[in-house]
Amino acid sequence: MTLQIKSFDEYKEVYKRSVEDPEGFWAEQASSFQWRKKWDKVLDWNFSEPNVNWFVGGKMNITENCLDRHLEERGDQVAILFEPNDPNEPAKEFTYKQLHAEVCKAANALRANGIEKGDRVCFYMPMVPELAIAVLACARIGAIHSVVFAGFSAQALADRINDASCKMVICSDYNNRGTKHIPVKKIVDDAMALGCDSIETILVHKNTGDSIEMVGGRDKWWHDEVEGQSTTCEAEEMDSEDMLFILYTSGSTGKPKGVVHTCGGYMVYTAFSFKNVFQYEEGDIYWCTADIGWITGHSYIVYGPLLAGATTVMFEGVPTYPDAGRFWQVCDKLKVNQFYTAPTAIRALMAQGDEWVEKYDLSSIKVLGSVGEPINEEAWEWYYDKVGKGNAPIVDTWWQTETGGIMISGLGSHSPMKPAHAGYPLPGIQPCLMDADGNELDGNDIEGLLCVKFPWPSMLRTTYGDHERCRLTYFSHFENKYFTGDGARRDADGMYRIIGRVDDVINVSGHRMGTAEVENAINEHPLVVESAVVGYPHDIKGQGIYAYVITSDPVDDEDVFRKELLKVVTKEIGPIAKPDKIQVVTGLPKTRSGKIMRRILRKVASGDTSNLGDTSTLLNPEIVEAIKSGALG
Ligand code: WTA
Questions:
Q1: How many CB atoms lie within 10 A of CB 187?
Q2: What is the pLDDT of residues 156-213, one digit of tens each?
Q3: Could you tell me the distance, in angstroms and rounded to a whole number, from the CA of residue 117 to the centre of ligand 1?
Q4: Strands 180-182, 175-177: parallel, antiparallel or unpaired by DSSP?
Q5: Is the CB–ligand 1 distance for residue 172 below 6 Å?
Q6: Residue 462: CB within 6 Å of ligand 1?
Q7: CB contact at 8 A, 315 and 263
Q8: CA-CA distances (angstroms) from residue 312 to 69, 299, 300, 304?
């Protein structure tokens, strides 16, 4: 059984042990899983290449631990509880036995279609049970899944398919999300038209049944391939360090990179963190509202909960359909015990008024979780008072795609809690704060750059196809440390408060975005000479996107031009990257070395032009006045 910490004193003791003897601690945690062969060595690492190996030589399959291991004890317990977009449609249940059978059938279908261990399979699907089933089917046969959030554009999808040379795409026909009817398969076809030579097969799950085009020899129906397959499937034996999945995420520069996670350590850490952060107890109903297209969905809808033998809710819809009470209606209906969502959703629902949340019985809720961006105090208080009725602790979970699992967070009600503070590190996690010169800042009541100085089992191993990029991005800033890209404060009590990104990554509605990516998209417009994108504080989204654009010729109609730019961004990345504000400028503030001084642009975008600091080192200080006077409020 995975260790479950039950008091703050116990946390302190376990934490101490985990730091003094990490190998002993993690070996203990790992021993509650099914291994085909036990590891020879717990940990082998350096952060200079980097090269990190957990449970070296161990052999296992994560799906045997998610599914087979539970069959005897809880075969008839619900594993996945699916709540459809349409509230009038009944929820669908998959017990562990049924899920096991469905995963085996799907795994056999993948093998029958030539998918083998090590092949990459891309997913572009709505939040339907078949997504979880097919992801697990990949893991069962050792294929590497690469799930692409279905809000990305055909171009973004094609880029990701090509970066990993995926052999297959699994998609649905259409997606019903809120009132939207999204032609998912058509977007996949558009991606293919952009050139995805590695794709041999597209498996299409019939979701809505509306008509689509099927290309002979390439496109196959999911049900044709899966139905009739055997309900058992021998799982592939995986090494602890074999790749489990790739997940693309944005950084400061260039195209999104494929963060690689491996089997053994990811398994141990997602299960451990799930049980402890959410204090999941036998029989609880756990709901994480994320999409499986993001890391939160991977680790805390699929793997963590299933490894822990939990009942995990999968929700197809959106928080505001058919009305702003949907989350709470579902919590009431399914008697949800742990509820995990993003601050942006909390703020959006808070703005709709208290009556929506007051309509429903939320007394089943024991733990509330927050993830993806800093939660402001007002949203925290509302979540605590109105949703939790002052009875449920909030776990503010800080982590990243790269960390694989929750790093800093309270453990249910067993940790001290402070609004907007993530709190203390989980056992085995050794965060530290650094100054810009590379000195570790000791003591409390300080602020610095957040790093981690010792490996943890679910950390990223590489970025797909480009290990040097992984080293440069995360391990080259500070010797022997993983750099997170976040700034943080450690308060007088030693609790961490995440301040936000210190690089050119912004967080829009909990979606992580590289400003460079948005700039590259904007620059595709023929009239654009140069652009600079920054984030600015936004009441609901956390950060909004503010774009400064230089054009080659004067723009006749700025409204038309802005609309064109939004179209270009939607085409290149997807609607989630659309700038909220676009200011046409004649120049950008640049240093003598030609670097854009983003500090000034951020200030102007935030509406605060009172003190722009020293602008005398600029090549073109006169531009600052012009930008200020044209700023969009
Ligand atoms: C931010 C999401 C404050 C942070 C799991 C991080 C947070 C980035 C929190 C990773 C939190 C995530 N408080 N900020 N509780 N959780 N972040 O990769 O800036 O989509 O670096 O992973 O989100 O975003 P990602």
A1: 21
A2: 999 999 999 999 999 999 999 999 999 999 999 999 999 999 999 999 999 999 999 9
A3: 32
A4: antiparallel
A5: no
A6: no
A7: no
A8: 17, 12, 9, 10
